[in-house]
Specification:
alpha/beta, TIM Barrel, Non-ribosomal Peptide Synthetase Peptidyl Carrier Protein, Chain A, eight-stranded parallel β-barrel, 17 helices
Length: 336
C-alpha cells in the first residue's frame, strides 16, 4: 500500500484525530489518547527554523517510535523554501503525512506570517503548499481556518479547491477565523461548503466537545472525520465516546472514579519516565483538573496535587482519594 493509499484508508475509517497542540500532544499524550480511541494523531507543531538549526526540542518532536503510528508531523513557518526543506526532514522520519500549520492564530506566530498568517495571502499559501508537495514523497495535508477576518474575507471554499489542485492530500478546517482565536462558536457549515467542492478528505475541527458533537459534525458536514483539540486535554475519553457514537450511535457511560484515578496515575508515571520527576510532575498538572472532574472535593484534591512536587506525593494523594471514595460507597454499591 502506498503512503497516499494508506492515508486514504485512514480517512475511510472515519477517524477521530488528536489535534496538534504545543506542549500537549507529545508522545506520552498521543499514546494515552490512542489507547482511548484516537488511532490517528498529529504531533505538536514544529518550528521549521528550529528544526533546520538542529534544535534538540524540534528534533525530539520529529522522532516517532514504532508504536506511535499512524501519526502526522506538523510543521510551521513563514518561508516556503524553509518549509519545503523541513518537510524533507519530516519525510525521513516516517509519519503517515506531513501537515502544514496554516491555522495557528497566536500573534507571535501569525504576526510573523506563519500559521494563520498565510491566510492574509491565500495565493501565496497555495504556492507554498505546491512547493512542499513537490519536494516530498509522503502525502502533504494542511490545517487552516476559514479565513483571517470577517466573513466577507473568508476564502476557504475557493482556497480548498486551489489547495487540492496544488496536490494537498487532505484538509483540516478549524471553523473559526484567525481573528476569532478561540472565542465565539465554530461554524461547521464552512466545512460542509469546502467539502462540497473538493474530492480530497476534509476534517472538521472546532467545538468538538462530546461524542454527540463528533457524530453530528460529520453527519451535518459530510466530512470524513473530526479533530479534537482542547477538549482532549481535560477529557481524553472523548475519543472512545466519539468512536462509539460514530460507529454505533450509542453513548458511552462517563468514566468511573477508578478510571479517572488510573488515568491520572498512568499519565503522571509516563511523564516522569519521559521527562524526569520535577518536569514530569509539573506538566501533568494541566490535565488533572479535567481527569478528576465530577469527584466530590475535586477542587481540594487538585490543589493538593498542584502543591506536591514529587511523584511519590502525587501517587499518595491519588491512592488516598481512591481509598476514601471506596470506603464511602454503600455495601450494595461496593458489591456491584
Amino acid at each position: 500500500m502506498s503512503p497516499h493509499e494508506r492515508l486514504r484508508a485512514l480517512y475511510l475509517s472515519k477517524p477521530v484525530i488528536l489535534a496538534p497542540m504545543e506542549d500537549v500532544s507529545d508522545l506520552v499524550f498521543r499514546r494515552l489518547c490512542r489507547g482511548l480511541g484516537a488511532h490517528f494523531c498529529v504531533t505538536e507543531f514544529i518550528n521549521v527554523e528550529g528544526l533546520l538549526r538542529g534544535c534538540k526540542r524540534a528534533k525530539r518532536k520529529l522522532t516517532l517510535p514504532e508504536d506511535d503510528q499512524p501519526t502526522a508531523i506538523q510543521i510551521y513557518g513563514s518561508d516556503p523554501d524553509r518549509l519545503a526543506e523541513a518537510a524533507e526532514m519530516a519525510d525521513e522520519a516516517g509519519p503517515v503525512a506531513i501537515d502544514i500549520n496554516c491555522g495557528c492564530w497566536v500573534p507571535k506566530i501569525a504576526g510573523r506570517g506563519a500559521g494563520a498568517g498565510w491566510l492574509r495571502d491565500p495565493d501565496a499559501m497555495v504556492a507554498m503548499a505546491k512547493l512542499v508537495v513537490s519536494r516530498v514523497k509522503l502525502p502533504v495535508t494542511v490545517k487552516t481556518r476559514i479565513g483571517w477576518g470577517p466573513e466577507s474575507h473568508m476564502p476557504i471554499v475557493e482556497l480548498a479547491k486551489k489547495l487540492e489542485d496544488a496536490g494537498v492530500a487532505a484538509l483540516t478546517l478549524h471553523c473559526r477565523t484567525a481573528q476569532m482565536g478561540h472565542s465565539g462558536a465554530a461554524d461547521w457549515t464552512w466545512a460542509k461548503r469546502a467539502r462540497e467542492v473538493v474530492t480530497i478528505p476534509v476534517i472538521v475541527n472546532g467545538d468538538i466537545k462530546s461524542g454527540a458533537d463528533a457524530e453530528r459534525a460529520m453527519r451535518e458536514t459530510g466530512c470524513e472525520g473530526v479533530m479534537v483539540g482542547r477538549r482532549a486535554i481535560e477529557h481524553p475519553w472523548i475519543f472512545r465516546e466519539a468512536r462509539a457514537m460514530i460507529d454505533t450511535g450509542v453513548e458511552c457511560p462517563q468514566p468511573t472514579l477508578e478510571e479517572r484515578i488510573a488515568l491520572c496515575r498512568e499519565h503522571l508515571l509516563a511523564n516522569v519516565e519521559a521527562r524526569g520527576e520535577q518536569h514530569g510532575v509539573a506538566v501533568t498538572r494541566r490535565h488533572l483538573a479535567g481527569y478528576l472532574r465530577g469527584i466530590a472535593g475535586a477542587a481540594a484534591i487538585r490543589q493538593s496535587l498542584v502543591l506536591t512536587d514529587t511523584v511519590e506525593g502525587c501517587l499518595a494523594i491519588l491512592e488516598d482519594v481512591r481509598t476514601r471514595k471506596q470506603m464511602a460507597r454503600s455495601p450494595m454499591e461496593a458489591s456491584v
